[in-house]
Amino acid sequence: MNIAVLAGGLSTERDVSITSGSMVAKALRKKGHHIVLIDVFMGYEQDNFNVEKLFENGYDFTKDSFVGESIPDLAEVRSRRRDKSDRFFGEHVEDICRYADICFLALHGGDGENGKLQAALDLMGVKYTGSGYLASAAAMDKSVTKSIFLHHGVPTPNSICYRLSDWNDEACAKHSIYPCVVKPCSGGSSVGVSIVETPDEFKKAMEEAFRYETKVLVEQYIKGREFSVGVINGKALPIIEIIPKTGFYDYINKYQSGRTEEICPANLDEETTARMQREAEKAYDVLGLEGYGRVDFLLDNNGDMFSLEANTLPGMTSASLIPQEAAAEGIGYEDLCNKIVEVSLEKYK
Ligand SMILES: Nc1ncnc2c1ncn2[C@@H]1O[C@H](COP(=O)(O)OP(=O)(O)O)[C@@H](O)[C@H]1O
Ligand SMILES: [Mg+2]
Questions:
Q1: pLDDT reported for residue 241
Q2: pTM, two decimal places
Q3: Domains plus CATH for the chain?
């Protein structure tokens, strides 16, 4: 097949996406597909564009990518674009998508994951991996996700959502739940997330979160263990436990190797394992996810579990959680990428 792997983009998770994309491209190439790995924002900026040739010869916009310790400088990325346009799609990206049999979305966060790209591709008549636009949008906004979870009985921590327009000193002073967790509603990779214990910390955390977005979620802090459950085509994979060596699962602990211990299959009794897997499948189902996704959980000392969120385009580096979970079930990385393509194509039949 001709497969366009879309990576990069302009979200705070740009770097992670480039790592995911280059690994997915490599894996699918090994499976015998013709692969064009393209930065959806930068596009193809050379003058010799010929889409047929590009797929025939293969194209990879980056060879050595890595995830830095801090979020990428997006203004700098914008300034590097040749035509300086403010369109989402870089040069020739639409031609590449149209020519491909399917696009593998190796994007994370922002406009790659929030449903806008999915809707645009639908209108262009382009097939892509993973969830459609509505589920993507619902899963991207944690306040929307939580209302759907509450409606369908998927357990999730109590929360309040603040809009920037209602935010002032009085609202801040009224807040009385500590410890709590402050997070931008549509963030990812823990960017802008803080765990706070005092009113002073709360004020600072809210200001920080509002730098990213005008909607901020304040959630009840759950003390306990953290897990994640990948779901492929509606069926849960083995559960992975996430144990950061220090602090919580923040940006650095997520992407710098050696900072977090991950155990898969997680050390949980049979009953808890089955319950968490059923909740993950239910979360996937009620949000309307398609193809694959990943649902995150906390488990407190009473054995109560809480779903934090669902990720519609979860990390796909070899160190990412879903590839580790698939491996625990005997599915290697290349087969996993191929499987995602296969299950995603089913919805177009
Ligand atoms: N209610 C909570 N209680 C305890 N820890 C939390 C809570 N919410 C988030 N966290 C911690 O913050 C991390 C990021 O939060 P999450 O809601 O998953 O946002 P993101 O989309 O950025 O991954 C989680 O992986 C977890 O370690
Ligand atoms: Mg998360």
A1: 98
A2: 0.95
A3: 2-128 (3.40.50.20), 139-155+224-346 (3.30.470.20), 159-220 (3.30.1490.20)
